[in-house]
């Protein structure tokens, strides 16, 4: 006896429902670049939250100097006791570093644009030029790192009287750390770009996503380094060319100094509330946007709209922060103090980047 022939199962209709119960024609799937945008948005939002919680204003300068500070709210600046010698980088270091950051930011943006080129053959020639330009950018970053490390090593050999003074170089070590981070990202990005020049039949999608992530991370590091470099410029950079600056600050010990102690500043309550609202909405809608991928079009459009609104809120918060920083720079410093603003620049910078990443995610998925 012959075994009965197996019957073929009927073909599923073209509009069948998925495991989520949503028909195929009603689904909306994100592009391959959505996950990197969301990842970068989440990282910058979390970093913004850390800076916001660390810089909530508690001290009120108006209580100590009512004649100098008219506002009753916190002021985004730290009041450090008088400095014996306010340090700074040599002018050559600043010039090379600022040039490397500008070139690095430009190369990161160009890399993202070339990466989005759909036609691989048309992108081959721009990719070759991009690799050559990336080599130049990496060389500038290496030069900036070497100059900064040599300046720090030279300072470490200088004598600092431990009885009367304290020499601090932590802010300048932070710059070197940013230099090294940018160099690592640039080398990884250059290696992947060189791999793309090989005759691949199908270039791995994971490496394409890595190019985007590394490019945006490099841009973020270089923008941060640019702000920090401008914040650490000594007044002698403009007065005397800055050729003899040294990257450490010398402070008089408390028992040899008159006046009150270090006064920590903070952000006004409106700025803090706006940034916290941006952080809470950002984290909520990032998780929501990642969960609804592949759902109905209406639900995905709702998540994209919420991310776009959060992006606008972040730009508004950034505007309030910049206005507060500018207003703080116009306030006179109390006698015997140095006003330090550089520690308050990262918060608005991170808020701006978080808003930018969320806005780019919304626009890239809608267009």
Tell me the number of structural domains: 2
Q: What order do the strands of the largest sheet run in, or round the barrel if closed? A: 2-4-3
Rough outline: flat
Roughly what is the average pLDDT, rounded to an integer?
76
Beta strand count:
5
Strand proportion: 5-15%
Helix content: 55-70%
Query: Which radius of gyration do the C-alpha atoms yield?
Result: 26 Å
* Sheet having the most strands: 3 strands, antiparallel
Spatial separation of the terminal alpha carbons: 63 Å
Keywords: Membrane, Transmembrane, Transmembrane helix
Transmembrane segments: 37-56, 96-115, 127-152, 172-195, 207-230, 274-292, 299-323, 343-363
Account of the protein in words:
This protein is mainly α. The protein folds into two domains: 187 residues, no CATH class; 172 residues, no CATH class. Helices cover 60% and strands 5% of the residues. It is built from ten helices and five strands. The strands form two sheets. A three-stranded antiparallel β-sheet has the order 2-4-3, with no helix packed on it. Strands 1-5 form a two-stranded antiparallel ribbon. α1 packs antiparallel against α10, α4 runs antiparallel to α5 and α8 runs antiparallel to α9. The longest helix is centred in the middle third of the chain and has 37 residues. It is flat and about 65 Å long. The relative contact order is 0.19.
């Amino acid at each position: 006896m012959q075994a009965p022939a197996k019957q073929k199962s009927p073909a599923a209709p073209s509009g069948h429902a998925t495991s989520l119960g949503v028909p195929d024609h009603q689904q909306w799937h994100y592009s391959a670049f959505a996950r990197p945008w969301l990842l970068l948005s989440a990282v910058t939002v979390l970093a913004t939250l850390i800076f916001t919680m660390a810089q909530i204003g508690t001290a009120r300068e108006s209580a100590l100097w009512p004649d100098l500070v008219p506002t009753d709210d916190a002021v985004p600046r730290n009041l450090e006791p008088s400095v014996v010698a306010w340090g700074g980088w040599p002018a050559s270091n600043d010039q090379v570093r600022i040039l490397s950051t500008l070139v690095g930011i430009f190369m990161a943006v160009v890399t993202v644009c070339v990466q989005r080129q759909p036609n691989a053959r048309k992108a081959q020639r721009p990719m070759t030029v991009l690799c050559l330009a990336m080599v130049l950018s990496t060389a500038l970053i290496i030069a900036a790192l070497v100059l900064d490390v040599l300046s720090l090593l030279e300072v470490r050999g200088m004598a600092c009287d431990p009885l009367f003074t304290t020499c601090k170089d932590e802010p300048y070590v932070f710059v070197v750390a940013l230099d090294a981070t940018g160099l690592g990202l640039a080398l990884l990005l250059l290696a992947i770009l060189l791999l793309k020049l090989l005759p691949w039949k199908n270039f791995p999608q994971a490496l394409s996503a890595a190019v985007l992530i590394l490019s945006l991370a490099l841009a973020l590091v270089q923008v941060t380094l640019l702000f920090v470099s401008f914040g650490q410029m000594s007044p002698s950079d403009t007065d005397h060319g800055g050729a003899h600056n040294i990257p450490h600050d010398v402070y008089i010990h408390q028992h040899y100094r008159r006046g009150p102690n270090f006064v920590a500043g903070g952000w006004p309550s409106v700025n803090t509330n706006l940034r916290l609202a941006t952080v809470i909405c950002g984290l909520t809608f990032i998780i929501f946007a990642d969960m609804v991928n592949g759902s109905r079009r209406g639900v995905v459009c709702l998540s994209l709209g919420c991310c776009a609104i959060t992006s606008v809120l972040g730009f508004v918060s950034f505007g309030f922060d910049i206005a507060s920083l500018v207003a703080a720079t116009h306030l006179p410093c109390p006698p015997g103090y140095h006003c330090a603003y550089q520690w308050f620049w990262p918060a608005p910078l991170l808020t701006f980047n978080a808003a930018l990443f969320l806005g780019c995610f919304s626009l890239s998925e809608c267009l």
